[in-house]
Write a structure and sequence with these properties.
The complex is a heterodimer of chains A (272) and B (263).
Chain A lengths: L3 E12 L8 E12 L3 E5 L6 H9 L6 E6 L2 E2 L8 E4 L11 H11 L4 H14 L15 H13 L5 E5 L7 H18 L2 E5 L3 H7 L2 E5 L6 E6 L14 H21 L12
Parallel strand pairs in A: 3-8, 3-9, 6-7, 7-8
Antiparallel strand pairs in A: 1-2, 1-4, 4-5, 9-10
Chain B lengths: L15 H22 L11 H13 L4 H31 L1 H13 L9 H8 L4 H24 L3 H9 L4 H38 L5 H10 L3 H34 L2
Helix pairs in contact in B: 2-10, 3-6, 3-8, 3-9, 5-6, 6-8, 8-9, 8-10, 9-10
The chains are: A alpha/beta (272), B mainly alpha (263).
Chain lengths: 272, 263
């Protein structure tokens, strides 16, 4: 049986009443056990608490109830060593060059200069940014800026990488190619990856397992195993099984998405 | 592999627009020179730009301007440092305390409707004809520009940078110095530019009204004694000085913004 790397047990997150806004039950109760080295994606309707789940797992938010662990230790209001997070928004630092952006975390941690140079060069080469080391983020496309953010996470050699819709702002083709790079990164680092995405095809292409969440407050309604080999890339979308996986995901999420939009779930015509 | 990159074309030392600007300025100076030399503008009203420059050179050579210049620059520097440091500190506090900010916001919005110079006699009565009334008026004039721009800068820091700080387990001080300050830098720089301009305006205007030295005082003295050449020479110097400082700040700002925006 695969080793459990990170775990959520009975986790809920309720945002308290504030400034005339009523309390909001955003998440849970949610249970999830991430296996070491797997690629796990979370899909669900808009506003179902996917990002909240990531923040709780990262230690960026405290669960109202339940327990979060990473490598057997409780995660409590602090991002544990070994956890890297990539956000949907452009989080590159516009005042630093690409190289300095990538070196930021290592320098902060007081890593030896030679080691910083080695790791940064390696990450830049791996992410295809070597030629742009001296460029500033504003000189790069959105996809490349997101690569800078991934490289900044990668140099810290995280064992758990959490990605919150990192390709959400990119066009479809770039997303597929970035997906390939993410798979390459995952294979090379051996890290456990948790990807939050609203794109069912992206989840189906990249993941070993996909957790489908209900409308708010988000719970896992099913976990779909893709059965893909570890050596895979975006060409997998042409395989027959790919359609079956996305179809299964949509079957799980259609009613939940309608609920999220405020519509009553609809029965299929033959079930009337 | 996606390798698109937008790089700005390399610019020469001066762009075409800058040459056009310089040309317009040179044309205006030449026009005034011609009008003064031909007597269309009488010498008691205005002297030719070349005569202003010659008089300015004479004032420097004879050591007649250095004392006033030192006096003015020290007052501007003091007012500027106080306004920038104080304005930044007040901005940070207001940003951290939203209730206080909501209470103070209307005052900030109407601040420049107050004619501060009316307080100048009061300050002279309190501090005498020293440098302090001048510095205080210039400070009052400049500080709110810095407060407003500090608030604008802090408001515009992307929320995601706060999350990045937490991912890197940065404390409040490290977050402020390593992330918030550089992220807010363009707005802080705007505040600095305005503070420089307002400090100069405040100091020169106060010296003009009631002082015993300084460039503003020297201009007023020359005006009252019908020393037209000297008055225009000093005015030319003040304009050149302020323009040079502003251009240096503009070049600095442009370099910073080029990095950040790629334009």
């Amino acid at each position: 049986m695969a080793e459990i790397h990170a775990e959520l047990s009975g986790v809920t997150r309720v945002y308290p009443e504030a400034a005339g806004r009523p309390a909001l039950h955003a998440l849970g109760p949610a249970d999830l056990a991430l296996r070491r080295g797997e690629f796990f994606s979370v899909v669900g309707p808009s506003g179902c608490g996917k990002s909240t789940l990531l923040e709780v797992l990262a230690g960026l938010a405290t669960p109202t109830e339940g327990r979060v662990t990473f490598e057997g230790r409780a995660v409590a209001n602090r991002v544990p060593d070994g956890v890297g997070v990539v956000f949907q928004e452009d989080a590159s630092f516009p005042w630093l060059t690409v190289k300095d952006n990538v070196a930021f975390g290592l320098r902060r941690a007081g890593t030896d200069a030679a080691e910083v140079e080695r790791r940064v060069s390696d990450a830049l080469a791996f992410m295809g940014l070597k030629d742009f080391a001296k460029a500033y983020p504003a000189q790069l496309s959105g996809g490349m800026r997101q690569r800078v953010c991934i490289a900044r996470t990668l140099v810290l050699q995280p064992r758990l990488i959490l990605l919150d819709e990192p390709f959400g702002a990119l066009d479809a083709q770039t997303r597929l190619l970035m997906g390939d790079e993410l798979l390459r990164l995952w294979r090379r680092t051996g890290a456990t990856v948790l990807l939050i995405t609203h794109a069912l095809d992206e989840a189906a292409m990249l993941s070993d397992r996909i957790g489908a969440m209900s409308a708010r407050p988000g719970r896992f309604i099913d976990i779909v195993e893709t059965g893909w080999p570890r050596e895979r890339d975006s060409r997998i979308v042409a395989q027959a099984g790919f359609g079956a996986i996305t179809g299964r995901l949509w079957e799980l999420l259609r009613d939940e998405s309608l609920k999220a939009l405020g519509h009553a779930p609809q029965r299929p015509p033959d079930a009337a | 592999m996606h390798r698109s990159v937008r790089l700005t074309p390399p610019e020469g030392p001066m762009s075409r627009l800058a040459w056009i600007r310089l040309g317009i300025l040179a044309g205006l100076v030449a026009l005034i020179e011609g009008l003064c030399r031909s007597g269309v503008i009488p010498a008691v009203t205005m002297v030719a730009p070349s005569a202003m420059a010659a008089e300015l050179a004479h004032l420097f050579a004879a050591g007649l301007i250095q004392g006033d210049l030192r006096h003015t620059l020290s007052a501007v520097a003091l007012a500027l440092v106080l306004a920038v440091a104080g304005g930044f500190a007040i901005g940070v506090v207001l940003h951290a305390l939203p209730r206080l900010r909501r209470a103070v916001d209307p005052l900030l919005a109407t601040y420049y409707a107050v004619p501060f110079f009316v307080f100048y006699p009061v300050l002279v009565a309190l501090f005498g004809l020293s440098q302090w009334p001048v510095v205080i008026i210039a400070f009052l004039f400049a500080v709110v520009a810095m407060v407003i721009n500090t608030l604008n800068g802090l408001d515009r820091i992307p929320r995601v940078l706060g999350k990045v700080a937490r991912v890197h387990n940065m404390g409040p001080m490290a977050t402020a110095l390593r992330l918030k300050l550089p992220a807010a830098a363009p707005n802080l720089f705007t505040g600095l530019k305005l503070a420089v301009a307002y400090s100069f305006i405040g100091v020169i205007a106060c010296e003009f009204i009631m002082a015993t030295s300084g460039l503003g005082y020297a201009i007023a003295y020359a005006y009252n004694n019908f020393e037209t050449r000297r008055m225009y020479a000093l005015m030319l110097f003040v304009l050149a000085l302020v323009t040079a400082i502003n251009m240096a700040l503009y070049v600095w700002e442009r370099r910073m913004m080029q990095r950040r925006t790629g334009r």
